[in-house]
């Protein structure tokens, strides 16, 4: 049996739950019978619904999986939560071997699932494609380990790192096909975050189930397209009076004359918004960098050359090359003529 191949399939299945399972992890599961034939697949589809293992096992008759192998990207759970423990069902159905990608970082599971399986005489193999499994659930891991919201930034620039000309004109640096990918990326996050400056300059629709606007002086108004979305949250200067309107308004303190980002991100975690994708201009990108866990950077094969043009990370006057912030490039993908670089701050690795 090719464990890596089945784990890849688990990851693929798990991704079908993107956008629907937060704050839970993405989990997929493949079941083999005692002769090594795949007899079932499943995944965690929606928060509060069956876990991947249960989804896959319940598609089978009582005895069908007896003597078989269950492959799953995360340690099976051992607790009573929204559903009963997966390990109990695995034991009950007579599975002989469990192959997992990683131990669960949820402290109420953390090793207990494996322990219970082993105590029941089930062979446990773990750590298969562990890095891929951890990447799949990087949001869940940060939430559980640090009790913080995962922060990602998406930007699109020219080859010379510009997102707009000096006078602010910026529409569509990248091609249609790159913009299709942006929709897929957005779906991975519980909310999108932008600024009043971007809303006013570009009037983007930024379709999403949760849109957050940093609007210190309450300059945006409901006629902007972004307000047509399901849920709109506005952070504004705590010194201003509470405004009226259908959006959720949240007061925030200022830091150096701007809304305090640390407060904002902490507040999002309190609100159970477990991940956020920032799509804004160079200033917010720059000041968010120290909170960022991941960056999606599209680059179009264009040079603007405008030395008053706006940089995609605009946050300081650095006159010493040693001041660079360092990143690790995780992947390079092509979208038509454009590329997408995905990178992580090195300090976070
Ligand atoms: C999932 N899906 O497929 C697996 C999970 O809130 P509950 O009761 O659904 O429990 C969520 C916890 O269960 C989660 O934090 C993780 O530790 C464990 N495993 N969760 O949502 C799954 N296998
Ligand atoms: Zn479970």
Protein architecture, described:
This protein has 349 residues and is α/β, with parallel strands linked by helices. It folds into two domains: 3-142, 3-Layer(aba) Sandwich (Cytidine Deaminase, domain 2); 145-348, 3-Layer(aba) Sandwich (Dihydrofolate Reductase, subunit A), CATH 3.40.430.10. Helices cover 25% and strands 25% of the residues. A nine-stranded mixed sheet has the order 11-10-9-8-14-6-15-18-17, sandwiched between helices. Strands 2-1-3-4-5 form a five-stranded mixed sheet, with helices on both faces. A hairpin with a 2-residue loop joins strand 12 (254-255) and strand 13. The longest helix has 13 residues, at 3-15. It is elongated, with a radius of gyration of 23 Å. The chain binds ligand AOF and zinc ion. Ligand AOF binds at residues 21, 24-25, 27, 44, 51-52, 74, 77, 81-83, 86, 104, 106, 109.
């Amino acid at each position: 049996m090719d464990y890596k191949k089945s784990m890849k399939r688990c990851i693929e299945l798990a991704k079908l739950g993107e956008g629907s399972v937060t704050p839970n992890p993405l989990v997929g599961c493949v079941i083999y019978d005692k002769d090594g034939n795949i007899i079932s697949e499943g995944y965690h589809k929606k928060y509060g619904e069956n876990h991947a293992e249960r989804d896959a096992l319940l598609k089978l008759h009582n005895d069908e999986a007896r003597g078989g192998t269950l492959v799953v990207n995360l340690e099976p759970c051992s607790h009573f939560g929204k559903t009963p423990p997966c390990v109990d069902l695995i034991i009950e159905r007579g599975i002989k071997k469990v192959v997992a990608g990683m131990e669960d970082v949820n402290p109420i599971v953390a090793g207990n699932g494996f322990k219970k399986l082993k105590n029941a005489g089930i062979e446990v193999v773990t750590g298969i494609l562990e890095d891929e499994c951890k990447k799949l659930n990087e949001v869940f891991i940060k939430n559980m380990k640090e009790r913080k919201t995962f922060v990602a930034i998406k930007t699109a620039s020219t080859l010379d790192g510009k997102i707009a000309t000096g006078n602010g004109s910026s529409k569509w640096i990248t091609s249609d096909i790159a913009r299709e990918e942006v929709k897929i990326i957005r779906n991975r996050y519980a909310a999108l975050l932008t600024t009043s400056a971007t809303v006013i300059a570009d009037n983007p629709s930024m379709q999403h189930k949760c849109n957050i606007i940093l609007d210190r002086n309450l300059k945006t108004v409901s006629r902007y397209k972004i307000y047509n979305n399901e849920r709109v949250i506005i952070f504004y200067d705590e010194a201003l009076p509470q405004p009226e309107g259908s959006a959720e308004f949240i007061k925030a303190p200022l830091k150096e004359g701007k809304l305090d980002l640390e407060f904002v991100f902490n507040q999002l975690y309190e609100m159970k918004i477990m991940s956020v994708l920032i799509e804004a201009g160079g200033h917010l990108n720059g000041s968010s960098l120290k909170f960022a866990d991941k960056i999606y950077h599209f680059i179009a094969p264009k040079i603007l050359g405008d030395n008053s043009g706006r940089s995609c990370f605009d946050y300081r006057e650095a006159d010493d090359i040693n001041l660079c912030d360092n990143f690790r490039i995780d992947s390079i993908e092509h979208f038509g003529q454009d590329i997408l670089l995905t990178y992580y701050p090195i300090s976070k690795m």
